[in-house]
Amino acid sequence: MRHVIALDVGGTGMKAALVGADGTLLYEARRATGRERGPEAVVEAALGFAAELRAHGEERYGRSAVAAGVAVPGIVDTPNGVAVYAANLGWRDVPLRALLRERLGGVPVALGHDVRTGGLAEGRLGAGRGTDRFLFVPLGTGIAGAIGIGGAIEEGAHGCAGEIGHIVVRPGGPECGCGRRGCLETLASASAVSRAWAAASGDPEADAADCAQAVASGDGAAAQVWQQAVDALADGLVTALTLLDPRTLIVGGGLAEAGETLFTPLRTAVEARVTFQKLPEIVPAALGDTAGCLGAALLAWDQLDTPDTLTTEVTG
To answer: Residues 194-221: pLDDT tens digits?
Structure first.
């Protein structure tokens, strides 16, 4: 069976899959990113993981993957296949496409930004399907965004479009990995909520999911931590809405797993902040944490369809 390798490298974990031409997930695997071992070790772990998937495909289907797609965080030079910068992983100017192509025996490799590839999948297959303009915002280790406009994912002139996690919403606030203070992701990402709730609860092992459960059970301290994150998120999103005017706002990532514990106060907070702006529909992402892998697979298949360029078109 013809298949591609899809790899989604996150701040804390990597997800990989073999994906058929019809989008079927044939095989999935996960492992820790291991960023505490340094950026070089993360690169080697990603290369090794992809090679393992290739071997699995050969054993299971009797043939190698015909292409590969990889999604990475940070700033990505898509045309040249370079992972330029990722604050969460500490790497700079990694020629990841060339390294993967060499490790995988020369097959075509597509490299994309993790959130934009996730947005590509949501646009084609998930909550953005049929929407002409959307903003996809996953709330995970960090925060970024994918801008869907007229059937395409906007990368920007330098591959930096959508980095709303680095909008400063609390000047002088917590220091961010980008070097500034008070960035949105230092206050409203899943990792930020985990840190805040661990401090407030006195439990160093507590995380954002624990905070959400405590909010749902009526814990006042948890509600305060949660609302502070929601307020910061709403401030950042309204800035994005003012600039982009999307029809639909798709929120995903770990915090979105809290369901209406997140979406009810978030819709209220955003609505309270808009003035002349048109309020978009605010909906949960449909693909969960498989969006990055599915998007990477779409990039891989698209590369085979258009070998000279990488497309990021979405269909409605």
So the answer is: 999 999 999 999 999 999 999 999 999 9
pLDDT in the model for residue 311 = 35
Taking only the tens place, the pLDDT of each residue in 251-289 is 998 899 999 999 999 999 999 999 999 999 999 999 988
Three-class HEC string of the chain: CCEEEEEEECCCEEEEEEEECCCCEEEEEEEECCHHHCHHHHHHHHHHHHHHHHHHHHHHHCCCCCEEEEEECCEEECCCCEEEEECCCCEEEECHHHHHHHHCCCCCEEEEEHHHHHHHHHHHHCCCCCCCEEEEEEECCCECCEEEECCEEECCCCCCCCCHHHCECCCCCCECCCCCECECHHHHCHHHHHHHHHHHHCCCCCCHHHHHHHHHCCCHHHHHHHHHHHHHHHHHHHHHHHHHCCCEEEEECHHHHHCHHHHHHHHHHHHHHCCCCCCCEEEECCCHHHHHHHHHHHHHHHHHHCCCCCCCECCC
Say how many CA atoms lie within 13 Å of 90 toward its Cβ.
Answer: 12
Residues of the chain with pLDDT under 50: 307-316
β pairing state of 82-86 and 91-94: antiparallel
CA dihedral of 300, 78, 88, 198, whole degrees rounded to 10:
-60
Residue 87: the pLDDT is 75
Pairing verdict, β 67-72 and 109-113: parallel
Report which of 308, 267, 269, 300 is spatially closest to residue 104, judged by C-alpha positions. Answer: 300
